[in-house]
Amino acid sequence: CGALDSHHRKHVGLLIEAICAIPSNESVKLVMAGKLNDKIINSLAGLSENLKKRFILYNKYLTDQELINLTTAADLICTPYTEHYAPSGIVLRAIKCRTPVLVPNYHWFKFMVEEFGIGWVIPQLTLAGLSGAIIKAKTETKTFGIKPYFKLPLLEQYYSTKNFVSHWMESVVETEKFSFDDLLKQLSEQK
User: Fold this and answer.
1) What is the value of pTM for the model shown?
2) Of the candidates 79, 52, 71, which has an alpha carbon nearest to the alpha carbon of residue 133?
3) Rounded to the nearest 5 degrees, what angle is found at the Cα of 30, between the Cα atoms of 27 and 33?
4) Cα dihedral sign for 139, 145, 146, 150?
5) 101 pairs with which residues across the strands?
6) Is 11 left (phi over 0), alpha (psi -120 to 50) or beta?
7) Mean pLDDT for each 10-residue chunk of the chain (191 residues)?
């Protein structure tokens, strides 16, 4: 989970606020797992008793198996990240466990939702946007029967060893050779 202040791009504070902002008639729980920062624990301690019931804290360093178990048991993995331009470890773990995700509306995250149906995007990374996206994911999963991972065979094919080797061969091996001497020559010409 991280901390309220050491990983700003993870928006833990915004996620806590979004869970609190969801109307009381909506049954939601947020499991916060991993070694938690004192600021997270203190911010939750200040909540009303009704809001505290929405949070389950698992405050310890997790083994790989514990993380797999938690990810598999979850209904949704929520990652309201910003400034994160590569695959996310927890999202990849959610894909492995077939757990739907709620991710930012940009780059790799958006691509994975649009192309492979692994969950939903957060339309705007605001309090209203995040809390609304959580309710939407919850409602669509239960009411309309939308099941993420309907494109799982395509996802497995895309991330297969065969496809990786094919792209690697095409982009690395079969490209024009560019030696270290060529690099030095190009650099000296730019001076």
Assistant:
1) 0.76
2) 79
3) 155
4) positive
5) 77, 119
6) left
7) 61 94 95 89 93 94 93 92 83 88 91 87 95 92 58 72 74 63 73 62
